[in-house]
Amino acid sequence: xxxxxxxxxxxxxxxxxxxxxxxSSQMKTQAIFLAQEKVEEIMASPYxxxxxxxxxxxxxxxxxxxxxxxxxxxxxxxxLTESASDVGLKKIRVVVSWQAGLKLLPKQVExxxxxxxx
Length: 118
Hints:
Layout: H1 2-43, E1 53-58, E2 67-75, E3 89-100, E4 105-116
Antiparallel strand pairs: 1-2, 2-3, 3-4
């Protein structure tokens, strides 16, 4: 009986860890989809219409209200360093953040891509 009780207690302690790992994976997947969505939205626009700057979206619509998204668009040179003039390359950087777990640790995913003026 003692072994059965010990085994049951061990199982009950492991269950929340498994749930936490599953929830963390789910949140990260949603964050990646939100970042990809923004990248695709920007890339659907002609190069000239992609405005430079940074936009922060906090409190995204339901069911994504736990996430915030920051999008930065900058001019870059061929070596990917920032540029003051337009040489036909823009860097898109999207960071999606959220609070994870009971300790509310900040988590984030980041996607970067380039668009070229054709």
